[in-house]
Recover the amino acids of this structure.
């Protein structure tokens, strides 16, 4: 049942014209033509959507009096059997029947004869594939949303557990100001929340039914597009038949949301790679998400994090591929559009495995509290606190406070100590307005505790944000 075997057997079956559109053709397609043309090797993934669409269409044709009840029953029962055969692995996918639509209909014809030929009344493969693919992408969006929610949940749990653990915050990957681990993790919760928003926006625009648009111009049969739309869970039928079969915006929107999301996953992956390195030692990734080296016994490699980072290229590539396919296509359908599926299937699978791995890694990771606290104070990260103290307690304008603090940092650097280790006499020699109470703001814990502005890093803020994140994203 391999595609290769199907191709070979189709090649042998030369001389017979295609059963679906062969009316005006004398000979079967050349084997090479079949190879470039056939999409069954990948679009069989649409079987469930294709059958659901056909059942909805057949029932509607029956209700509209276009098909007899007997035909509708035969078609729907037959389609049930086809579905069971596919799911049971007993279906012979044939490349000579090109795609999933004709494979399903071909098998239906074998089973129920003439009635199967009536199923395609008032329908074209153009509106059929557009319908199937919308249904498929809709499921992919729902799956991504679920997975993103699980990832957010893991991040929020870790943020809660580490609401008051301090770590260095960075800009330019240079130590900047101390932050709390919980605050850092909640930044990702926001990013993934926006990803969910993008998926949900895309879903709302996607959720219109192209079924009944026909090849491009609509149909002369008295079909009920509202009815099929409703049966398939769409909000309404699409408004313009030409647009219905020409449009793949819904895929591009899914892929762009997926690509942005993959970018976020990649940044998380990158941070985990850095944090788990021997030089940082902020975090230990669990054994389940690390691998050893075949040569260097000491190694613990963060492979999953690296792969999450690396796989971003495939998802962004899928967007680029389809955007390139679609540019410059005249309305309505062109066969180029068959190239819409493989990149999306790959991107969706890739996104799902990355989301699951990110959630697993997040739930399992163990932070090193002492190491984080020590690093939080390295690199004079309390310099801003000193400048702020001068502004607040001594009425010094911020720019001047910045200059004074710069001199304090230079002195500490020269002495090879932290700001908090400088004797008060040294501080006062730089600026007489500094007194003992400055030491109250020079510890990392005090520093993060003081950052209570809305959205700031203070542990109390983090705890409140944990609660509100659960509310906004998990309820
Ligand atoms: N396999 C085709 C695709 O995925 C189905 C639509 C074919 N339509 C056509 N007019 N040849 O795009």
């Amino acid at each position: 049942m391999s595609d290769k075997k199907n191709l070979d057997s189709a090649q042998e079956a030369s001389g017979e014209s295609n059963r679906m559109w062969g009316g005006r053709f004398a000979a079967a397609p050349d084997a090479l033509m079949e190879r470039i043309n056939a999409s069954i090797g990948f679009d069989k993934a649409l079987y469930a959507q294709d059958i659901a669409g056909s059942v909805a269409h057949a029932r509607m044709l029956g209700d509209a009096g276009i098909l007899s009840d007997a035909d509708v029953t035969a078609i729907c029962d037959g389609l049930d059997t086809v579905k069971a055969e596919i799911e049971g692995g007993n279906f012979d996918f044939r490349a000579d029947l090109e795609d999933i639509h004709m494979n399903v209909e071909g098998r239906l014809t074998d089973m129920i004869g003439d009635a199967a030929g009536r199923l395609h009344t008032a329908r074209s493969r153009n509106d059929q594939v557009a319908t199937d693919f919308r249904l498929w992408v809709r499921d992919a969006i729902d799956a991504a949303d679920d997975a993103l929610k699980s990832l957010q949940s893991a991040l929020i749990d870790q943020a809660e557990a580490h609401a008051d653990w301090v770590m260095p915050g960075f800009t330019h990957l240079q130590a900047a100001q101390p932050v709390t681990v919980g605050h850092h993790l909640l930044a990702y919760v926001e990013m993934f929340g926006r990803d969910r928003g993008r998926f949900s926006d895309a879903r709302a625009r996607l959720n219109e039914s192209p079924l009944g648009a026909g090849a491009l111009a609509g149909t002369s049969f008295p079909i009920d597009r509202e009815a099929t739309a409703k049966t398939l869970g769409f909000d309404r039928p699409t408004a313009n038949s030409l647009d219905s079969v020409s449009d793949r915006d819904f895929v591009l929107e899914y892929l762009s949301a997926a690509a942005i999301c993959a970018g976020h996953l990649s940044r998380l992956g990158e941070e985990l790679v850095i944090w788990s390195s021997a030089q940082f030692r902020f975090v230990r990734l669990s054994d389940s998400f690390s691998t050893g080296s075949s040569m260097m016994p000491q190694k613990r490699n963060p492979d999953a994090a690296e792969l999450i980072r690396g796989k971003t290229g495939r998802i962004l590539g899928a967007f680029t591929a389809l955007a390139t396919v679609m540019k410059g296509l005249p309305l309505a359908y062109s066969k180029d559009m068959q190239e819409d599926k493989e990149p999306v299937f790959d991107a969706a699978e890739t996104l799902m495995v990355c989301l699951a791995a990110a959630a697993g890694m997040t739930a399992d990771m163990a932070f090193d509290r002492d190491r984080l606290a020590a690093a939080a104070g390295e690199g004079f990260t309390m310099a801003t606190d000193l400048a702020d103290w001068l502004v607040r307690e001594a009425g010094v304008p911020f720019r001047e406070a910045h200059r004074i603090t710069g001199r304090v940092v230079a002195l500490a650097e020269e002495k090879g100590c932290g700001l908090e280790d400088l004797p008060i006499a040294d501080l006062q020699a730089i600026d007489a307005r500094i007194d003992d109470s400055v030491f109250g703001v020079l510890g990392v814990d005090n520093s993060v505790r003081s950052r209570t502005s809305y959205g700031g890093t203070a542990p109390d803020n983090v705890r409140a944000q944990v609660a509100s994140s659960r509310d906004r994203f998990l309820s």
Remarks:
- The chain has a mean pLDDT of 93.
- Residues 164 and 459 are 5 Å apart (CA to CA).
- The first strand starts at residue 166 and ends at 171.
